[in-house]
Amino acid sequence: MDRAGLPLRTGPSSVDLVIAEIGSLGLRGELAISAAIAAVAALVGGALVVAMTLVLELFSWTPVLGTTVGVFTVAAAVMAWQVLSGTRRIEFRPVDEPGLVRVVGGVWAAEYPVAHLRRVLLRHKVRQSSRYPFTLRPTGRVELRLEFDGRTVRESLAGGFDVPALADRLRALVRPSGVPVAVETTQTTVYDPEVADDILPREGIVLAVIARRLPDRSAPMPGYLSWEEVRVAWPAVWDVARAVEANGVRAKRRRSTGAGGREFSWYEYRAVDVQRVADAILGGTAVLEPSWRTDTAEGLAAHAALTTPRHRRLRLGRSRNTDHSGR
What we know:
alpha+beta; four-stranded mixed sheet; 9 helices
């Protein structure tokens, strides 16, 4: 592996993309380990046959030996085939300007001219951390496709490395030949690549709010807060909607379908913006009208007027009229 943690190894005559490492025992050692595992499986199979024949009082060495030999033969053959047939590495030769791609297995090799290579494709999945920092992390294995004229070589790489960085290294290798290198990324959950670069202070209110989330409750998208969480982060504000708009807090609309096919939607608010406004509120620089606050006479009066029973009945009546009119 190279210093960046990528599955690449530069030798005197080639740059190798490592598919499967050969252990310290070498190929013969891997075959010996496979034989040992097959022997254990055979002994277990033979012991089961012995136990069954003893229970049925039909003990005989013939089925025991037959089962042991059969299990060992099949297991050893399968494991040896896996060791010998699998691809170990893909060599790009020579190092400076590769003109040959060599696919190397345990006991075989196949060569393809770079001039016949039409595209290199890397496919991988990513997930986003629900805890800060909200970085995108690769998950599972990475599919590699080398598309030649008339044939495609497909391999699977162990994950855990920076796939775009590997694509850049491969792109630099085949650039003299004009071969495109593409990366296809799919996500396992709802995510937002933009929040991966957000920076939140460790002692800020937003991280404290995120830390209080219950593990069994549905949480907002990584890097976002719910309306209720924004209220907790801004205890001096009761009119969150106006404060959000006045202070440029970015929001994303989420949708969900409930029972009966009914669709629900709501907004979630960018955590880094909520933290910025929380700091501005403490510093006295946030854009807030006195009537939006919980610590002013105007704000308390406005909130009380909005939550009186009469006002709530009027709002409910208007909502029902709107529903009946179909607008």
